[in-house]
Amino acid sequence: MLLLNASGCLDALTAPETARTLDAFVTKTVTPDPRGGNPPVRIAETESGMLNAIGLANPGRERFLAENLPALRELGVPLWVSVGGFSAGEYAETCARLDEVTIEVNLSCPNVDEAPDSAAEIVAACRAATTCPLYAKLSPHAWDVGETVRAVEAAGADGISLVNTLRGVALDGRLRPKLARGAGGYSGPALKPVSLAAVYAARRATTLPIVGMGGVTSGRDALELIACGASHVALGTVLFADPNAPARVRDELREEVERAGFDTPDAAFGVALDSVANLAN
Q1: What is the rounded distance in angstroms from the CA atom of residue 21 to the CA atom of residue 49?
Q2: pTM summary value
Q3: Structural domains for the chain
Q4: What pLDDT is recorded for position 274?
Q5: Active-site hit among 9, 95, 109, 132
Q6: pLDDT of 9
């Protein structure tokens, strides 16, 4: 099992020591052209999570390749590059420029206009453009997650990442949206049941590796994702408040694994699915 960060939840160049405690570092999403992102206010706290409407702010592909990527390689941590775009061709163009990384195709950002192409079309275009390992990052909004997973697997994905944020709105004291954009991506502890359900559905649809994320704040949360079929686990919102979360969650996971009666985290893989199958028999 690998422990990663969720894309956009850690700046490795300003917090290199935190990045080095991960098994792999996932970059912010890179788009062909530079993006300043959405206007402020772009982040708002809620009772049990956080809303963000950053809008894929990033320096653009050329500057990322010339400056950011070489600097990130100096960290000595395996790199995953999150790739975005507004057409299948834009995604593919960026993928074609990458090597010696894992690519995470961001198909699920709630804070920008989505590409008109389907997830499968985008993955197929990226697969044709690169031999790098290719993960498809999916939204929890799809009613049938398994159908989407099967489609991107058939298109050439090597793995699945889920979930990205849910769309949400928070109001201020004057009953107006706190975010300038109105709605934003909701993340934090309250997202965990959604992420567990999505990973559970995805695992029933595929044998591909799955990176589970959404609401992970403890080793128990990580273990529950593994039990639902996650091969790897990513930390997101917790990194904003606790830069020591990777080391802490790793230690807690070892304790939770032992408490649950398993020798390793991998030994707990998929047990939630097994128990439901047994009840059905």
Answers
A1: 24
A2: 0.94
A3: 3-280 (3.20.20.70)
A4: 85
A5: 109
A6: 95
